[in-house]
Amino acid sequence: MDSATIKEALLEVSRLWLHEAAAGRMSVETADLYMQVSERLHRYAVAHGISRMDDVSKDLAHAFIAAPGRDRRNNITLNPAGSTRRQRRSAIASFFAHARSLGMTKAAPLLDSPPIKRGPRSPGASLTARDIESLQFHAERGMPATRHAALLALLLAGLHSAETAAADTTDLDLAHARVSTAGATRTHPRTCRLTEWGVYVLGLRAARLDRSGCGPHRLVTSTKSSRYGAQASVGAGFNDIARNAGLATPKRKVEPRDITRYVARQILHETGQLSEVARRLGLSSLDAAAGLAGLAWRNEDTAR
């Protein structure tokens, strides 16, 4: 009996990924990413005259992982970044593992394939109050037509990138300088304080969006984007701000998580309570809160 087609397997495995996401065993963002990558694998295989799962060879899988693609600005990238190749490899491995469990193929194209090495993890940029002022100044360029100031304001309120991506105009309570979030895969729902600057720029952004038609409107991302795509868009937008401010350079990487670290340190300095850092950032782990705040509280290591 012939193996299932790639399209047939994709439909069934996608249902399994969605079920795992609903049960909390996989993040929704990962499920979205795996489905997107597997759909691209399907198109890639068809272009090479392959339609069935058992015919996907190790060479084809590796060629797909290393294939040119497009970045978030739709520019062609001839050599995909290591993170992109790792995402493709992880998605394909999961796709075939689930398809084998369903009896739809016997193929294992990535069996014995070595993992793609990661570079050393960046310790993160330790942003100062002056850095934040510079980011705010450069984020204001073109506002409220541009999203940069609103994006930075949400991050400075303590929202993580996935929460920032999902924030819409109904989440704002500008009269009380607050923004609500439903949380994300690893964070709890909560209400976060807005800075005075945040109230100002988000008020302008919300008013502009409301004039464009019936809401609610997402503040910094498109409703057409997948969860993963929207979160990635937040990272790309923040990178634009950091680069314009001169903080992100070829030798220094600055990410949304560095804003979260800054906020965590500010909360710890203000309250002296690690539990308050965890509460305001929606974290269930005090260890995670300590890591963000740069506090070595369980060992003798120096604070980061």
Structure overview:
It is a single chain. The protein is mainly α and 304 residues long. The protein contains 12 helices and 5 strands. It has helices at 6-22, 28-47, 58-65, 82-101, 129-139, 148-156, 161-166, 196-211, 227-244, 256-271, 274-281, 286-293; strands at 69-70, 76-77, 172-173, 178-181, 190-193. The strands form 2 sheets. A 3-stranded antiparallel sheet has the order 3-4-5. A two-stranded antiparallel ribbon has the order 1-2. Helix 10 crosses helix 12 (286-293). The longest helix has 20 residues, at 28-47. The radius of gyration is 22 Å and the shape is elongated. It starts with 5 loop residues before the first helix and ends in an 11-residue tail after the last helix. Residues 300-304 have low confidence and may be disordered.
